Amino acid sequence: MSLSKMKKEELELLSNKDITNLILQESKKPINTADLFKKIIELLELPASTFETKIGDYYTLLSTDKRFILLEDGTWDLKSRHTSDKIAKITEEEDDEDDDNDDEDQEKEELEEIEEDNYDDTDEEYDEDATEELKDLVVIDEDELELEQ
């Protein structure tokens, strides 16, 4: 059913996302955020002040809905109308560089593992220093703390 034939009561039962979906289906072309939201305000006969107070929320709503896509020119369209026509082509040269980087990354990981294995976390001197620093501390119960205040 087209938006122009729908009654206001029917439109009020739809979410702004659903109304946007219908607007974009009928328009057959991308529309910017402001124009989309103005159409919704017109259709629902909302006060003009709604535009300024709710436009940010409306933009967020469009951004998070998977049915819509923001195009490079700042307009919104239905994602179903757009396909990814960009295909990454990897040349042999780039592939060789990736292999070299993978070898370097693997060597770094092996060195880190060796360093971790050599770390001795049972260092007696460290434990003595920590104990020395903490010997004067006193543990106070919450009830005791309240009494002191």
CATH architecture of the domain at 3-81: Orthogonal Bundle
Helix content: 55-70%
Task: Average the pLDDT over all residues and give the rounded result.
Answer: 77
Gyration radius, in Å = 31 Å
The helix-strand sequence is HHEHHEEHHH
- Oligomerization state: single chain
Strand order within the widest beta sheet: 1-3-2
In short:
This protein is mostly helical and 149 residues long. Helix content is 60%, strand content 6%.
Can you walk me through this structure?
- A hairpin with a 4-residue loop joins strand 2 (68-70) and strand 3.
- The chain has a domain at 3-81: Arc Repressor Mutant, subunit A.
- Helix 2 crosses helix 3 (33-44).
- The longest helix has 27 residues, at 92-118.
- It is elongated and about 80 Å long.
- The protein has a 3-stranded antiparallel beta sheet.
- The chain has 149 residues and is mainly α.
- The chain contains 7 helices and 3 strands, in the order H-H-E-H-H-E-E-H-H-H.
